[in-house]
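Deliverable D2.4 — example input (C-alpha cells):
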C-alpha cells in the first residue's frame, strides 16, 4: 500500500503599483517634455510613457544621476545613488552593474539603445507595470514600501531634466 502526499507550496508575491510620474524640464531651451504620463488600461495593464524633445541636436555629452529613495518620514536615500557617463555606459553596459540594473527597466521600451550622439528625441513608450514588477520583485527583490526613483539628466554638465517615478511595492 503506497501513501501519497500532496505538497502545497505557498507562494507569496509582491506587486508594484505606479502612483505618479513627474517630468520637469530644467532648461526649456534645450529640452522639453512633449508628454509624460501613467495610463491605466484596466486593473492589470498599466504603463508609463514619456517623450522629451531635444531642441539642440546632436547631443554628444550626457550624464545621468539615478537615485532610489524610500519613504520613511519623507523620502530618504535608499541603497542607490549613481551617476554615469551615459555615452560611455551605452558603449559598454557592463561597466556599471548598478546603472545596468536601472537601464534594464526601460531599455526594451526606449529608443535609448545606442551611444552618443543623440540626433533624435528620446522616447520611453508603454513601459508596463509587468516589466517593472519583474525587475523589482525577481531580478533584485526590494522590501515592501513606497519608493521614488529619481533621475537627473545632464547634458554638457548642466542639469537639463528631472524625472520622478513614484511607486509602491506591496
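Example output (designed residues):
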Amino acid at each position: 500500500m503506497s501513501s501519497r502526499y500532496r505538497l502545497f507550496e505557498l507562494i507569496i508575491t509582491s506587486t508594484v503599483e505606479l502612483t505618479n510620474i513627474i517630468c520637469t524640464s530644467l532648461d526649456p531651451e534645450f529640452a522639453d517634455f512633449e508628454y509624460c504620463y501613467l495610463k491605466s488600461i484596466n486593473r492589470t495593464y498599466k504603463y508609463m510613457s514619456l517623450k522629451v524633445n531635444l531642441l539642440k541636436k546632436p547631443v554628444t555629452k550626457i550624464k545621468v544621476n539615478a537615485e532610489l529613495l524610500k519613504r520613511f518620514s519623507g523620502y530618504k536615500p535608499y541603497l542607490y545613488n549613481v551617476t554615469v557617463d551615459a555615452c560611455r555606459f551605452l558603449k559598454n553596459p557592463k561597466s556599471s552593474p548598478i546603472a545596468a540594473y536601472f537601464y534594464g527597466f526601460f531599455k526594451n521600451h526606449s529608443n535609448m539603445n545606442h551611444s552618443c550622439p543623440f540626433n533624435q528625441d528620446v522616447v520611453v513608450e508603454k513601459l508596463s507595470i509587468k516589466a517593472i514588477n519583474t525587475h523589482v520583485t525577481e531580478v533584485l527583490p526590494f522590501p515592501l514600501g513606497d519608493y521614488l526613483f529619481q533621475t537627473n539628466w545632464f547634458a554638457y554638465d548642466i542639469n537639463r531634466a528631472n524625472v520622478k517615478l513614484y511607486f509602491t511595492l506591496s
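The longest strand covers residues 158-169.
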